[in-house]
Design a protein that fits this description.
Number of strands of chain B: 19
Strand order of the largest sheet of chain B: 12-3-14-13
Radius of gyration of chain B: 22 Å
Shape of chain B: globular
Strand content of chain B: 15-25%
Largest interface: A-B, 59 and 60 residues
CATH topology of the largest domain in chain A: Immunoglobulin-like
Radius of gyration of chain A: 23 Å
Distance between the termini of chain B: 78 Å
Order of helices and strands of chain A: HEHEEEEEEHHHHHEEEEEEE
Oligomer: heterodimer
Bound molecules: iron/sulfur cluster
Structural class of chain B: alpha+beta
CATH architecture of chain B: 2-Layer Sandwich
Largest sheet of chain B: 4 strands, mixed
Largest sheet of chain A: 14 strands, mixed
CATH class of chain B: Alpha Beta
Structural class of chain A: alpha+beta
Helix content of chain B: 10-25%
Helix content of chain A: 10-25%
Number of helices of chain B: 12
Number of strands of chain A: 14
CATH topology of chain B: Alpha-Beta Plaits
Strand content of chain A: 25-35%
Shape of chain A: globular
CATH architecture of the largest domain in chain A: Sandwich
C-alpha cells in the first residue's frame, strides 16, 4: 500500500519534471555507479619495474624469467554497472624493454580455457593493461586520475589481449566461424559436415548481410594479425578501438594457467598511444576476464588502485 | 535511476535515463483475431534481413502459438517467473475510476515492480532482471504449433465464453505475432554498458550501432521480449531494425513517402497496420489511425505492459481466449478492448478496413458515411453496420486508398458455368 501511495504521488509531480526534459530534448545518463572513494586515488607503494634487457621477441620468455615478478591482487568490479567478476584473485606481471620494444609477461590461474565467443552464452578469457595516455607524475586525492577507465579530459590507453583472437592467429582463414562451434549446422539429418560440397552458398554467405563486417569492427574481421586490441577510453562505457593497432601479443594456456606476453614499440607515431621513454615513471592498472564465469565488459576482476610503473634507462 | 512516466502503467517508474520521447513513434497494430499463422511475415523478414551465416536461428519476426509456444522457448513464462519473484512481486493493477486518467493512465495503475524496479529492489548488479536463453531455446520459431490449452487449463483460467459463444471449442489457442517493440523505455538500451544502442529521435526506432557493439550480450540478457540476438559469426548482437530505410521512404515504389516494414506489408491475413504514433502521448491525433486505435479507442493493447518498457506494438486480443490469461498478457485494458471489438463502432469498422490495403504508411484517415447494410445483436449488444467509405492519406496529404466497409462483390452469369 505504501508503494501505491508513493507512486501515485510521484505520478502527478513528475509531469512537470518530464516536461522540462521533453523540452530540453537531451537524454542524460544517470549515474548508477558508486561514488569514487578517496582510497581509489591513492596508488600503491610498490609497483612494476620494466628492466632493460637487450634481447628481442625470441628471447622474451627468457628475459621475462629474469625480470622481477610483481603480483596484483584482484577483486570484483563493483564500482560501475554492470558489476561482476572477482573469480580471479591474483595476476602476476613482469616487464622488460630493449630500448625499442616494451614487453609485459602476464600469468594468472584459470582452470578453464575459454577461447571462443560464438555460442550464445560463450565468453572469452582476456586480460587488459591500462595506462594514463599522457605521462602522469602524481596521482593522489588532490590530483585524482580515475582508475575507472579514465575520465573526461583524462584518457587512458588500454591493451586488451583476447584468448579467441590468439587462437584465430593460427586457424585457417584467420577466423573461427559458426561451423567451428556447430560442425553439423549445414546438415539436418545426415550429419555430413562437408559444407563446401552441400551448402556452398550458406558457407560463403556471411558478407552478404553482416553489420559488424560492414562497420569494420575488428571483432568481426578475419586475419587481424594480432591478439591484442589497442583501445582508448575516457570513463566507463567509452571504450573505443583505435584506427591504428600497434600492440601485439602471444599467449598459451596449460595446466590451469594462462601465460601471455604483450608487447609494443616504446614509442609509436599514434597520438592515441601511451609513450614510454626509458627512465620515466607512470602508472598502470590491470583487469582479467574469466570467460567461464560469463565475464565480459564491467564483469571482470580488477586491481582498482593505480600501480607505479618504472621504465629503466638503457644501459 | 530517474523517474519517467509510463502511460501503460499509469505512473512514473524508475529508468536509467531521463524521459525523452521521439517526435514520432514507430508502432503497429496487430489484430490477433485475424492471424492464420501462415508465417508470410516471418519469411518476409527472413529473406530481407537474416539470411546470412550466423543468423540461421534469428527470427526478428516470429509467430508463436499461445499458451505453450514461444521463441525463444518459454521466454514469457521465464520473465513472468522472474518478475513474480516467488510471490514477492504480485503484478497487481488498480483499476477503479480514480486510478485512471484518460491519457496518462488509461488502463489504471500498475502497482507491482517493473523489470527495472525489481532489479533495484533486489539489489541486482544489472539494470533489469533477465536471462540469456541458451542455444536449445532458440531452435524453434513456432514450437507447439497449434497446440491447444487443455480443458484443465480452461478450468483453471475460467471459461473462454465471455465474448464469444463457441461451446464446441472447449480448448483454445491463439497466434502471437512478435517483433521488437521499439519500446519507449528499451531495456536493451538501458542494459548496454557502452550505449551502443540508441533510439532515434525522429521515429523512435531502436537500433544497435554495429560500430559500438562489442558483443557483451547485455541486451540479449535484459530485453524481456528477447528480441536482440547474438550473432556468433560477427561476435556482436543484432536486432529488428524496423526496416528503417522503408520507414524513411527510401524505397522508390512509394515515391519518397514512408513505407510500411516488410513483415507488415507482407501480411496475408490482413492483420497488421503499421504507422507512426504522435510523439506526445497526451495529445493523440484523432485522425491518425495509430493514435485513434491505441490512444483514443483503446482497442489495441501493449504486450506485457507490466515489464515496464512501454512497448509500441499493440494487439487487438483474441476473442476466444480466457480473459484472465489475456489480462496477464495485455493488462487490464482487455475487457474494454474486447467489448469494443466484439460489437464494433462505425469508426472501428471503417478503420479496420485500412489494414493491408497499401504499403504506404497512412498518417490520416477520413470517413464518408454510407447507408446501413446490416443489423444484429452480439453479446446482448446491438450492432449496426454501415457501408461507410474510409479514405487513407499519406503524411504529405496524398490520398492513397479508398475502401468501403462492404467489399464489392459480383455474381457471375449462370451462362458462364460450363458443365459437362
Ligand atoms: S523489444 Fe527488446 S530489443 Fe526491442 S526495443 Fe524493447 S527492449 Fe529493446
Ligand atoms: S503474415 Fe499475417 S496472417 Fe500470416 S502469420 Fe504473419 S501476421 Fe499472421
Amino acid at each position: 500500500m505504501m508503494k501505491c501511495l508513493l507512486r501515485k504521488s510521484v505520478f502527478f509531480g513528475s509531469t512537470l519534471v518530464a516536461l522540462v526534459f521533453l523540452c530540453s530534448g537531451v537524454t542524460f545518463s544517470q549515474g548508477l555507479d558508486k561514488e569514487i572513494s578517496m582510497e581509489e586515488n591513492i596508488p600503491t607503494n610498490e609497483g612494476l619495474t620494466v628492466k632493460y634487457i637487450a634481447t628481442d621477441l625470441n628471447g622474451a620468455d627468457r628475459a621475462l624469467g629474469q625480470a622481477d615478478p610483481y603480483k596484483l591482487e584482484l577483486q570484483i568490479q563493483d564500482l560501475a554497472f554492470p558489476n561482476g567478476g572477482g573469480s580471479v584473485q591474483e595476476v602476476e606481471v613482469r616487464g622488460f624493454h630493449n630500448g625499442e620494444t616494451i614487453f609485459f609477461g602476464i600469468k594468472w590461474n584459470d582452470a578453464s580455457k575459454n577461447d571462443r565467443a560464438i555460442a550464445h552464452a560463450q565468453f572469452r578469457d582476456a586480460v587488459g593493461l591500462m595506462f594514463p595516455l599522457e605521462t602522469v607524475k602524481e596521482i593522489s586525492p588532490e590530483k585524482p586520475f580515475s582508475p575507472r577507465m579514465g575520465d573526461r579530459g583524462k584518457p587512458v590507453n588500454i591493451w586488451h589481449w583476447k584468448a579467441d583472437w590468439e587462437k584465430e592467429l593460427n586457424v585457417n582463414g584467420g577466423k573461427e566461424h559458426m561451423e567451428d562451434e556447430y560442425p553439423n549446422m549445414f546438415t539436418d539429418f545426415d550429419f555430413n559436415p562437408d559444407p563446401i560440397r552441400f551448402h556452398k552458398e550458406t558457407y560463403e554467405s556471411t558478407p552478404l548481410m553482416a553489420g559488424g563486417i560492414s562497420a569494420e569492427s575488428l571483432l568481426s574481421q578475419a586475419n587481424r594479425g594480432r591478439s591484442v586490441e589497442d583501445l582508448n577510453a575516457v570513463g566507463f562505457g567509452t571504450l573505443t578501438s583505435q584506427e591504428h593497432q600497434d600492440v601485439n601479443g602471444k599467449g598459451s594456456w596449460s595446466n590451469g594457467k594462462w601465460d601471455v606476453v604483450i608487447y609494443r614499440p616504446l614509442e609509436t607515431s599514434d597520438e592515441n598511444d601511451v609513450k614510454f621513454v626509458p627512465g620515466m615513471s607512470t602508472f598502470f592498472n590491470m583487469a582479467v576476464w574469466n570467460g567461464n564465469e560469463g565475464d565480459r565488459n564491467g564483469q571482470k576482476s580488477v586491481s582498482i588502485r593505480w600501480r607505479p610503473l618504472k621504465i629503466e634507462t638503457v644501459k | 535511476m530517474t523517474l519517467v512516466h509510463n502511460w501503460h502503467l499509469g505512473r512514473t517508474m524508475e529508468y536509467p535515463y531521463f524521459e525523452s520521447r521521439p517526435e514520432h513513434q514507430f508502432a503497429a497494430v496487430f489484430n490477433i483475431n485475424r492471424c492464420i499463422a501462415c508465417q508470410t511475415c516471418t519469411m518476409a523478414h527472413k529473406s530481407t534481413w537474416t539470411y546470412s551465416k550466423g543468423q540461421e536461428y534469428m527470427w526478428w519476426n516470429n509467430v508463436e502459438t499461445k499458451p505453450y509456444g514461444g521463441y525463444p522457448q518459454h521466454w514469457d513464462h521465464k520473465i513472468l517467473q522472474l518478475l513474480w519473484d516467488n510471490g514477492n512481486n504480485p503484478m497487481e493493477w488498480y483499476t477503479s475510476a480514480k486510478d485512471k486518467d484518460e491519457t496518462k493512465a488509461p488502463y489504471g495503475l500498475y502497482n507491482g515492480d517493473t523489470i527495472f524496479e525489481l532489479a533495484r529492489t533486489k539489489g541486482l548488479n544489472q539494470v533489469a532482471v533477465g536471462y540469456i536463453p541458451d542455444d536449445k531455446e532458440w531452435r524453434f520459431p513456432n514450437i507447439y504449433e497449434d497446440t491447444a490449452a487443455s480443458e484443465k487449463t480452461n478450468y483453471e483460467t475460467g471459461a473462454a465464453n465471455e465474448s464469444s459463444e463457441l461451446p464446441e471449442h472447449k480448448r483454445w489457442f491463439f497466434y502471437l505475432q512478435r517483433i521488437c517493440n521499439h519500446c519507449t523505455y528499451p531495456a536493451c538500451l538501458a542494459a548496454c554498458p557502452r550505449k551502443a544502442i540508441y533510439k532515434r529521435k525522429e521515429d523512435g526506432i531502436v537500433l544497435i550501432d554495429q560500430k559500438r557493439c562489442r558483443g557483451y550480450r547485455k541486451c540479449v540478457e535484459q530485453c524481456p521480449y528477447k528480441k536482440p540476438m547474438y550473432r556468433g559469426e560477427t561476435r556482436m548482437s543484432e536486432k529488428c531494425i524496423a526496416c528503417y530505410p522503408r520507414i524513411e521512404g527510401k524505397d522508390p515504389i512509394t515515391k519518397g513517402r514512408r513505407m510500411e516494414a516488410r513483415c507488415m506489408a507482407a501480411c496475408v491475413g490482413k492483420i497488421r497496420l503499421n504507422g507512426l504514433l504522435t510523439g506526445d502521448y497526451r495529445k493523440p491525433d484523432p485522425k491518425n489511425p495509430m493514435d485513434w486505435l491505441i490512444h483514443i479507442h483503446k482497442v489495441a493493447l501493449p504486450l506485457y505492459p507490466q515489464f515496464g518498457t512501454e512497448p509500441n506494438i499493440y494487439y487487438i486480443p483474441p476473442r476466444w481466449a480466457p480473459r484472465s490469461y489475456l489480462r496477464q498478457m495485455f493488462g487490464p485494458g482487455v475487457d474494454e478492448a474486447l467489448d469494443k471489438y466484439a460489437s464494433p463502432s462505425r469508426t472501428l469498422m471503417a478503420v479496420l478496413q485500412l489494414f493491408r490495403t497499401t504499403q504506404t504508411m497512412l498518417s490520416r484517415f477520413e470517413i464518408e458515411d454510407g447507408k446501413k447494410i446490416f443489423e444484429s445483436e452480439v453479446m446482448g449488444k446491438k450492432v449496426e453496420v454501415y457501408n461507410d467509405t474510409v479514405i487513407g492519406f499519406a503524411s504529405d496529404g496524398t490520398e492513397i486508398v479508398r475502401v468501403q466497409v462492404e467489399e464489392p462483390t459480383w455474381e457471375s452469369d449462370e451462362k458462364r458455368m460450363i458443365t459437362y
